[in-house]
Amino acid sequence: xxxxxxxxxxxxxxIGQSMTLQCTQDMxxxxxxxxxxxxxxxxxxxxxxxxxxxxxxxxxxxxxNVSRSTTEDFPLRLELAAPSQTSVYFCASSSxxxxxxxxxxFGPGTRLLVL
Amino acid sequence: xxxxxQNSEALNIQEGKTATLTCNYTNYxxxxxxxxxxxxxxxxxxxxxxxxxxxxxxxxxxxxxxxxTLKQSLFHITASQPAxxxxxxxxxxxxAGTALIFGKGTTLSVSS
Lengths: 115, 112
Description:
The structure holds two protein chains of two kinds. Chain A is an all-beta fold. In chain A, 0% of the residues lie in helices and 54% in strands. By secondary structure, chain B is mainly beta.
């Protein structure tokens, strides 16, 4: 199993450009997540999905959009890139346990620089 | 809202000593708590999960405790090695049970 894969690994965007960060998992997990990680700030949840066709906002959703048409894929869309979106983005997946989401499996991350 | 804090941003210890990292939480009583390891430039990797009815859990040189009265978890690495140097993240499940809330992490440096 490849686990969670993310593309691209690194991208430079100009202010106002748009792009899609790709995320795919091959573990048949229902739950998928997008986080951003800024230096010293920990992981902040952007959006998550509990299954195909179902998405919900996390702590910092502004400026982003997601869709979940299949179990495997959970792309993150930036419509109008801003310097504040410079960050490292991580995708993760998991299965629900008896008391809620348990082990999360993370991708390698996408480093985004907006200039 | 739920809040999770890891007391130290950085911890420096000598090889062979025991490292102890602290995680505190407020405004919530989670059913379980997790610990992850993150190396520079990589995604977090799951280490241990401890449930509210478990006082202690062990995995090789790792030990986690969970005190629901103090609302605190302690993460211990015994006989630490330079290879243990990394950032360690504490996470608890949200009240809705659909997401994890992460602490900012503690960066451990083990010197030989």
